[in-house]
Amino acid sequence: MPTETMPIEAGSMDIHPKGDINELFEPNSIERGFKDPRSRSEQFNVWLQNHRMVAADSWLRLWLMPVSSLLSIILIGFSLALPVFLSVLLAGSGQLSTGWRLGDELQVYLDPMVSTEEAQQWAKSLEANPEIESITVVSKEEGLALFSAESEISDILRGLEKNPIPVLMVIKPKNSDPSALVNYLKQQSQVDVVQADDLWVQRLQALLQAGERLMGLVALSMGSIVILVILMGTRLSILNQAHQVDIARMFGATRHYLRRPFLYSGFWLGLAGGCVALMLVYLSFIWVEAPLAELARAYGTDLSFTHLSFGQVLQLIVLSTFLSWFGAWIATKRYLP
Amino acid sequence: MLSVQNLSRRYGNQIALTDVNFQMKEGELLFIIGHSGAGKSTIMKLLTLEERPTSGDIYFQGLPLAHITNSEIPFYRRHLGLVFQGHHLLHDRNIFDNVALPLIIHGYPIAEIKRRVRIALQHVGLANRETAFPKHLSGGQQQRVGIARALVHGPQLLLADEPTGNLDPELSLEIMGLFRQFTTMGMSVIVTTHDLALATKFAKRMLHLEGGRLINKESQVHEFGVEYAD
What we know:
The complex is a heterodimer of chains A (337) and B (230). Helices cover 65% and strands 7% of the residues of chain A. Chain A is built from ten helices and four strands, in the order ααβαβααβαβαααα. Chain A has a four-stranded antiparallel beta sheet with strand order 2-3-1-4. Chain A is rod-shaped and about 120 Å long. Chain A starts with 39 loop residues before the first helix and ends with a helix. In chain B, the strands form two sheets. A six-stranded mixed beta sheet of chain B has the order 6-7-8-3-9-10, sandwiched between helices. In chain B, strands 2-1-4-5 form a four-stranded antiparallel beta sheet, with helices on one face. Chain B is built from seven helices and ten strands. Helices cover 32% and strands 25% of the residues of chain B. At the A-B interface, helix 1 and helix 8 of A face helix 2, helix 3, helix 4, helix 5 and helix 6 of B.
């Protein structure tokens, strides 16, 4: 190894070092071949230090590009807020239908040929049925009186020779699900029509079931949108930073090292997007809670939305962060040279 | 420390480099001279493992590079220092961050990064420009930042691809002077250039490439034997 020192022939710059440049040169061992020569614990410390630096740096870089960062965050926020809002809305509506079922009644209109006396006798025999809690028989006369009082055609009804109103039996079932009893009653010859008060509840439940599936579809679509948005954004970043990536590669950056800044950007965008989604969900409930509660009161029931629990909030944030990170991961896997 | 044996590189039917052989010792300054398209950049790409040779092998510290895996390449490159013709600085980072890049990649502790960057910047005469950005520096200063970045991690081999291509003659002399000084610390330096006059001023040893071949068939190493002016 030469030890001679040689002066620089030309130039005006100060090339006489003030620090000892020899300190930069250490014996670099390649005894282990071209592998990291450090011990496992040293490698871990380096890994941790790099994560800290890259995490802080990528967070700062989001602030240096406020418009594009904000657009991505808002897009993630809206994409995730929609399915979360729908799921909480569906959960609240589910409570509404369950609450209604507790007080339901069956209105059994008998054949017009069945007299009030025959109906009362049949009602007595029906009371032995274990599915029935109580039966109230509304006679033809009572029915006519009630109908006349509430109807605009009372004069016409009074003019008729024969009472056209059938005997009505109001049956309160014991079970919350009276479908078996309804089927039994429909098969009886005395029965003309069986009308369940919870018909609209059944419709609502069917709607809710359809809504749940639709919500699943919306959640899937919105999750895919988050992944795609971050994927395309990260792809663009990789293309924009191809020069930096190349330089880092030439100075010994590993593939993991090169991917890290992009993955952290995805992580931060997802985290911020999750927080925005949460905020949007809460704002939406503040906006719709009062009119929905009023609508529920119009149907004679109370409606109270259960706000997201701490666990659900955590789930939303973690999901948002994961989806965004996953989008960045796909982009780095696919587009990083 | 470096041995290049029967190195060839083809791109389809086009021959970029044929049967190149040379050896290098520690602390040696080697110039590779040739016109544009002679194969200088191809040699550099093969030495940095940006590309793999079609045939032949390179031995670095006695270890062959032919069968090095992709995951080992970054660790091989950590023994190299690279200087580019176009500086290749990060324009959104200040001078300190640019020079610190290899140290951050290699995972040096923060305090050590600061210490090394300052020594390297002092050595190239830019100690007071740590917080400046590349766009605020002249071409010569930018190249010196590139050199500080190349030496900051104390590489065993420094590869400079046309480092003075964009510089005026006076600055070129300064840059070559720096390279020559590095060899006194045990660093081996390979410089590619088309400027024979400049190389002759500094070189003890030159390889002349033409059409992808080393000229001087007898030894394939052209020894000019030019001694330093001091």
